[in-house]
Every structure is written in structure tokens, then in C-alpha cells.
Amino acid sequence: MRRAVLEEPPTEWEKWHTQHCLNYVRQMILCESNLRLEQVKDSPVGLKADGLGLEHTCRDWSILYDIAEENSKHWPEGLYP
């Protein structure tokens, strides 16, 4: 994933896969996490985990975003882009 962030993936499939993995990490951070692992399934291309059908309940982060935005109004001009 580090390489995919630093260098553009060479194929469309790798671009999709990188986006999928980064979105998965984002969801694990922002959503209600648990210790459940994805089930490994047999597929035509070998064993893999897809996570399809697993439900997670996401938290409402809008209040935190609103507070952070209000707080940033008090920062000195030009400190952050």
C-alpha cells in the first residue's frame, strides 16, 4: 500500500485494488471496529477474503468535523494551506 500511495499503480486493476484497500482502512478507522476477521473463501483463483456481506455500523463523525472546522477558524492566517 505504501508503494501504491507513492507511485501510481501501473494497471487499472491495481489502481482499483489500491483504492479498495485504502477505502477499507478508512472504514475500519471511521466505523465501529471489531475483532472479526474476514472469512477466507475458495475461489477460481485460489483462497481469498472478500468481506462481502459483513455489516459494520459507522459512527457519525459530523459533530467532530464541525468542531475541527470551527477550531481551525482561530488559527493564524497562512499557518496551513
TrEMBL record:
Taxonomy, superkingdom: Eukaryota
GO biological process: mycotoxin biosynthetic process
InterPro entries assigned to the protein according to its UniProt record, in alphabetical order: UstYa-like
Pathway(s) served: Mycotoxin biosynthesis
Family as reported in the entry's similarity comment: Belongs to the ustYa family.
The name this protein goes by in its record: Uncharacterized protein
Species the sequence originates in: Hermanssonia centrifuga
